Amino acid sequence: MVKAKDSSKEKSPELVAFGEAVRSQRKARGYSQEAFGDVCGIDRSYMGGIERGEHNLALVNILKIIAALELRPSEFFKALDNTPKNTSSKS
After folding, report:
1. How far apart are CA 43 and CA 69, in angstroms?
2. Which 3-state string (H, E, C) describes 37-83?
3. What's a Gene Ontology MF term here (predicted)?
4. Gap between the Cα atoms of 85 and 22, Å rounded
5. Are 15 and 54 in contact (CB under 8 A)?
6. Whether the Cβ atoms of residue 86 and residue 80 lie closer than 8 Å to each other
7. Backbone angles phi, psi at 59, to 5 degrees
8. Measured between alpha carbons, how far is 76 from 91 in angstroms, rounded to an integer?
9. Which of the 8 DSSP states describes residue 10?
């Protein structure tokens, strides 16, 4: 018997792109995942899920992450627009 694919476990491309942008910015600043989670006030394991695109974040947590990266929201989201997953889907 073939199991049906559980679509509830599929990752949203937007969440994956957000997570990749967070990971890229975090690494560029020399933070480990644990240290960055401490700066943001977000648990390391939850931060890992964010970076893998597994969590749909509340605005408060998005702003905590952006503040910890020492960016303005507009700067972060402009960079997010330029990630490969987002540039390929634009017409």
Report:
1. 16
2. HHHHCCCHHHHHHHHCCCCCCCHHHHHHHHHHCCCCHHHHHHHHHCC
3. DNA binding
4. 14
5. yes
6. yes
7. -55, -40
8. 22
9. S
DSSP secondary structure string for all residues of 11-42: PPHHHHHHHHHHHHHHHHTT--HHHHHHHHT-
Long-range contacts of 44-51 (CB under 8 A, 24+ apart): 50/18, 50/19, 50/22, 51/19, 51/20, 51/22, 51/23, 51/26
Token pair for residue 48? 């890992």
Q: What is the pTM of this model?
A: 0.79
Domains of the chain: 12-82 (1.10.260.40)
- Token pair, residue 61, equals 């947590």
- pLDDT (tens digit per residue) in 35-69: 999 999 999 999 999 999 999 999 999 999 999 99
CA dist 53 and 22 (Å) reads 10
| Cα separation, 17 vs 22, whole angstroms | 9
